[in-house]
Specification:
about 80 residues, alpha+beta, 4-stranded mixed β-sheet, 1 helix
Length: about 80
């Protein structure tokens, strides 16, 4: 059965983060290759998950939502 709600929801909402407290990173699994975008706290290194990255569109969406320019470091 086809549903009109089965497509991806595009968020045009711009969110912010404080670069003096957190930095954007991709947490990557060595075993499965799964990538999760989020922020790592600079004080204790704790990772805060934002979204699963399944393809380049997801990564671009994450960048656009938070206004991230340049490379995003990968952590394992």
């Amino acid at each position: 059965m086809f549903s009109i709600f089965s497509g991806k929801k595009k968020s045009s909402e711009h969110k912010t983060y404080d670069p003096s407290v957190r930095r954007p990173v991709l947490r990557c699994s060595i075993c499965t290759g799964e990538q999760v975008a989020g922020f790592q706290r600079l004080d204790d290194g704790k990772f805060e998950e934002v979204m699963l990255i399944r393809n380049q569109e997801d990564l671009e969406s994450f960048r656009e939502q938070y206004g991230i320019k340049g490379d995003i470091e990968k952590i394992y």
